[in-house]
Structure formats: C-alpha cells, structure tokens
Amino acid sequence: MENFKLKYFLGANSCEGFCSFFDKCYIPDGEWRVYIIKGGPGTGKSSFMKYFAAKASDRGYKTVLCPCSSDPDSLDAVILPDRKIAVMDGTAPHTVDPAFPGACEKILDFGSFWDDGAFRNSEMNIIETTLLNKALHRTASRYMQAAGQLMADSYKTALACTDRLKTVKFARGLCRKLIPESSGAGNEWVRFIQGITPLGVVSYAGTVSAEADKTVVIEDEYGSASGIIINYVREYALRNGYDVITLKNPFLPSLITDHIIIPQLSLAFVTENEYMRFPEGIRRIHARRFVPSSQLHLSRERMKFNRKAVKQLLLSAAETLSRAKKTHDDLERHYIKAMDFDALTAFAVKFTDDVLG
User: Fold this and answer.
1) Planar angle of CA 20, 23, 24, nearest 5 degrees
2) Which residues, listed in sequence order, are joined to residue 44 by a DSSP beta bridge?
3) pTM surpassing 0.90?
C-alpha cells in the first residue's frame, strides 16, 4: 500500500457518529460497475482488494485506495475512476447494499468460501467478542462526541469573529484568477483524507500533491475563514462544469469542508491546521487576514481550554479504537480457520482478469 499515492477514507469515526460516503464514490449512470463484498471479519476482503489494486496499477490504471478508518492497514475499497470500476467492503459499519442490482452493482459473497462446520463450539465466543467490539466503538464514539462539542464551540466562536464579506470577496477573486469560466454542471465526489484511527489521527496529505500540481494552502486553526473560501470554490467550480473532490472535516463533517480538489485543473484548495500539515514552499493564505485577533482574543482562554481538552479526548478515542481493533483481530481468527483461501485466491485471479480485461 505504501507505493500508492492516492488514498482516501470513505468513512470516518467522526464526532457526529460514523459517517459514510461509500455511496458517493460512484454514479449509477449505466457505465459504472460496482462490486460489493459481503462476508465476516478475516474472510480476505482486504487482501482481495489489495490484489485487485496491485494488478490494476500494474496495468497502468489510475488506482485509488480507500483504507479502513478502524484499521488503516486494511482496505475498505478500491476505485478505478478512469475505468468506472469500484470494489468495496459492504459490511458494517459502512453497510452498502445494491441500489440497482445487476444494472450497476453486484454482490460478491465471501461467505461461500468458508466451512460453516468450523464455527462449531465457537458460537458464543464470536457473539461475545462481537458485542465487546461494538461496545468499545460506542465508548470511542462518546469521546468523539465530547470532542466535537468543543471543536464546534471553537469553530462557531471563530466564525462569529470572521469578516464574511471580506472573505467572500477574496474567494471570488481567487476563483476568477485560477478557475477558467466554462459551462455545464460538474460531478462531486465526497471523501476524507484524514481520520481518527487506532493509530491516532492519520492524514494523507500526499494525496493532494498526487492529484494537483498547484495547491493553495489556507492556514486556519479553526476552519472559519477557510470553510467560507472552500465552499465558495466548490460552488464556483461545480457551476462552471468542473468535477470536484470534496474533502470533509473528519471530526465535524456536516459542519466543515476542509479541502477541494479540481482534478481537471490539477488544482487544490486546502486547509492547514494542527491536525493537517502540507509541505513547505506552497503558497499560503493566513486566516488572520479575515479574523481580527482583537475579537478572537476575548475568547482566548476558552479556546485554549477547548484545544487542550480535544487533544486528550481524541487520544482516549484512539486508545479505545486500538482496543476495539484487538477484539476485531480475535474475531478474524475464527473466520480465518473456516476459510478456503485457495478457492478465494483462484476466484481473485479470475475476477481480476475478467474485470480488467
């Protein structure tokens, strides 16, 4: 996975609960072909997708990897945008079912590769471990929800101090300079390049440089000014017929959009903050141009408390997700014993050859 430059999360353990954009990674237009994998933990879903991704990349296809936010070493999906092909894990918590079965999506049942008899005498252990895993995810979610309250408070405080008219005027000028006027309506792909995981906050800043030759970085700790600029860019690009990749904030996805990539122009507008850093040498816009420090200073102590408390809550969430991953690993061992991996490998080879041609 280290050799792949394009990585996105399609799901996030957000402060608003688990947020999934799996249904936003393809368009049911009669051309996309989507393969949804069903099966228990340890049934080879991620290994199957890694094999498919490697073969697609070897054949020169643009290959997008979508790691799992609960285990970044595993895959949730592989997307070949130029071929309009997607292969994804359709199991909980990001359950995906076909909306147009046969016409657009097809189910791959990996349960057909296991021996049901292998679970005999392990049923209660599987049930208890599954329930423990869900309980740990609920605990992590509570830490995230508490962090979200404080993050939202800081964001709304900064937003109230932001000169909206000045920010919008700047965004308009930026768009006119960097985005040529065109016609039509663009498509939007919604994803994340950052997420809270068992490893802590994981970011894929390299994805931006892989998608765009030119990047405009907005330094904004709270996302108030950058959010206004990014949303203006999004609407302007879509209105002018450009496809956009909209990258939501992984903590408050319904409230904040962090980044926008316009692949056709090889152009990106991104937010830089404590949890997301980009390489030096890229043009930077400082949010303090739009947020008078004299106004923000009045809330300095509260914002400082929020920032410190959020760090601790996110650390606790990551530690709990790490414990949840260990229970998931325990579950996988039951299914691994039951799997016929020789049959699955043969299926992976045939599937890949058939789909890629």
Assistant:
1) 90
2) none
3) yes
- Residues 138-149 have pLDDT tens digits of 999 999 999 999
Element (H, E) at 261: strand 257-262
Q: What whole-number distance in Å separates Cα of residue 61 and Cα of residue 55?
A: 9
Q: Cα–Cα–Cα angle for 45, 50, 54, nearest 5°?
A: 150
DSSP state of 110: G
β 85-89/71-80 pair status: antiparallel
Q: Is 266 left (phi over 0), alpha (psi -120 to 50) or beta?
A: left
- Beta strands (DSSP E) in 15-92 are 17-20, 33-38, 64-68, 71-80, 85-89
Within the chain, where are the H helices?
45-58, 123-161, 164-178, 206-211, 224-239, 293-296, 300-338, 341-356
Residue 7 identity (one-letter amino acid) = K
Which of 179, 176, 170 has its CA nearest to residue 267? 179
Strand order in the sheet with 284-286: 188-191, 244-248, 257-262, 267-272, 214-219, 284-286
